[in-house]
Amino acid sequence: MTKYLIKGGKPLKGAVRIGGAKNSSFKLMIASLLADSESRLLDISRIGDVQITKQVIEILGGEVKSPGKGTIFINPKKLKNYQIPQDFGYKSRASIMFAGPLLARFGKAYLPLPGGDQIGRRPVDRHLDGLKALGVLVKQTDGFIRLECAQLTGSKFRFVKNTHTGTETLIMAAVLAKGTTILENAALEIEIDDLISFLNKMGAKIKRLPNRVIKIEGVKKLKGTIHKAIPDRNEAVSYACAALATKGDIIIENARAEHLNAFLEKVKEAGGHYETDHYGLRFWYEQPLKATKIKTQPHPGFMTDWQALWTTLMTQAKGQSEIIETVYEYRFGFLEDLKKMGTKIELFNPQVKNPENFYSFNLSDDIQDNFHAARVFGPTPLKGMELKVADIRAGATLMLAALIAKGKSILLDDGHIQRGYEDLDLRLKELGADIQRIES
User: N or C: which terminus of the chain has fewer CB atoms within 10 Å of its end residue's CB?
Assistant: First the structure.
C-alpha cells in the first residue's frame, strides 16, 4: 500500500515532459510477439501495465530486455507457452489481446477472463465475436477463455458497438490470417493508428478506409522492427487540468494538439488558456473558469478517460456544468469522494430518444438505478480528506482534487496510480506541489 500526503492550495508552475502512451505501450509489446525476430520499442511508459505485460511475455517464453530508459527489446523466438496464468487476469485487461499472437503461433490461446479498473463490466463479447468470424472456436470455462483455431481466416466483421481494444485485438488476429479481413465500425483512436503503423513497419498490410473501415490483407510472416510510441494524451490532459485547477502555468513537452482537439475546445469554452508550439503545449489560468457541458464519446469525441478529471476541474468553474458519460455504464464512482471533500454534485439520467445508439456500452450490462450524468455546481471550495484510490483514473482525479483542496489530504493506493502514471507524484512535486509518498 502506498500513502500520498498532499497539502493543497499551491499553483503548479513549470514544465513536464510526457512519455509514451500507456494505451500504446503495452499493446505494442504484445504485437511484437507476431514477428519472427526482435523488435525494439522506444519511449515506452515505465508503468505498472507495462511491467505486467513484460511478466506475461516472459512466462510465455519471450525475452524482454530494457537496455535504456523507456526502451524495451522483445524477442519472441522462444515463445513456448499459450496459457496466461489466471492471476494476471485480475491485474490487467491486456490478457485478451494476446489472442492474435498466440493463435497465430500455436493455434491455441488459454486466457484468463480480464479484470482491471472498476468502471463497468467492459465485456469481451465484441472481441470474441470477431475472433469467431476469423474461424476461432471459443469456450469459457473455470475463469478462462479457451481459443482454438487450425487456421485464422480472413473475414468481414462489423462491430455492433464501437470498441477500442476490440478493434486492436482483431487487427492483431487478422494480420497473419489467410486472406483479407474487413473490419466495419472500427474504432478511430490514435493509439490504434500507432499499432497499425508498427505492424505495417513489420510487414503487415493494413489500411484505414472511410466510414470507420479497416482493411487487413493477411501476410505469411512479420519481421521485428524499431518503433517509437506516440505521446500519452491522457497524461497531457492530467497536467493540463492540474494547471487550470490550481491556477497555475504548466508547459507539457511532447504533447500534440492534434491528439487533443475535443479537450482543447472545452478548455477554450471554459475560459482556460493554452498555446501550441514546437515544444508541445502550455496551459495556464488567467480568470475564473466557466461551467461547460460535455458528453463522452469514442474518438474523435471527448474521451471517457478525461471525464473524471474534467468533472473535478468543473467543481472550480462558475455555474452549472453537465457531464454525460456514454462510453461506460459505471464511471462516476469517484463522485462520492468528491462529495466528501465538499463538492455539490447531482447525479441524473439524461432523456435519450434512442439509448441503444446513444450509449456505447451494452444496455443489458447496465445496473438498475445507475446514473450516466452529473450536474456540477461551482465554484466550491474543497477540503482535505483521507481517501482510498479505486482505479487508475480515480487516482489521478483524487490527486487533482487534493491539489485544489485546502488542508491536508491522504490518498491510500494499492498500486493504481503507478499502474497508469510514471512518477506522477515526483513530477507534480517538481511543479511545486507539496506531496510526499510513503511506501508500506
Answer: C
In the predicted model, what is the mean pLDDT of the chain?
94
Which superfamily is assigned to 22-228 in CATH?
Enolpyruvate transferase domain (3.65.10.10)
Rounded Cα distance, 430 and 440, in Å? 23
The number of angstroms, rounded, from the C-alpha of 290 to the middle of its chain's C-alpha atoms is 27
Instruction: Kindly state the average pLDDT of the residues 379-392.
Output: 92
> Fold identical between 2-19+231-439 and 22-228?
yes
Q: Which residue has the cell 501550441?
A: 276
Type of residue at 50: V
For 264-283, write each residue's pLDDT tens digit. Answer: 999 999 999 999 999 999 99
Q: How far apart are CA 230 and CA 314, in angstroms?
A: 28
Q: Is 49 helix (H, G, I), strand (E, B) or coil?
A: helix
Q: What is the pLDDT of residues 61-81, one digit of tens each?
A: 999 999 999 999 999 999 999
Which string of DSSP letters, residue by residue, matches 203-226?
Answer: T-EEEEETTTEEEEE--S-----E
Helices first, then strands: H and E counts in the chain:
15, 23
Contact between residue 25 and residue 1 where contact means Cβ atoms under 8 Å apart: no
Assign 122 a pLDDT band (cuts: 50, 70, 90): low
Strands, sheet with 434-439, edge to edge from the N-terminal-most edge strand: 386-388, 408-413, 2-7, 434-439
Among 1.10.8.420, 3.30.1300.10, 3.65.10.10, 3.40.50.620, name the CATH number for the domain at 2-19+231-439.
3.65.10.10
User: Is residue 384 within a helix (H) or strand (E), and if so which, with residue range?
Assistant: none
Q: Please enumerate in sequence order all residues whose Cβ is within 8 A of that of 166, keeping only pairs 6 or more positions apart, or say none.
A: 124, 126, 127, 130, 159, 187
Q: Can you give the residue ranges of every domain in the chain?
A: 2-19+231-439, 22-228
Distances (CA, A) of 91 to 55, 86, 396, 433: 11, 9, 18, 30
Query: How would you classify the pairing of strands 39-42 and 226-228?
Result: parallel
Give percent above pLDDT 70 in the chain: 98
Alpha carbons 176 and 65: distance in angstroms, whole number: 25
Element (H or E) spanning 16, and its range?
strand 13-17
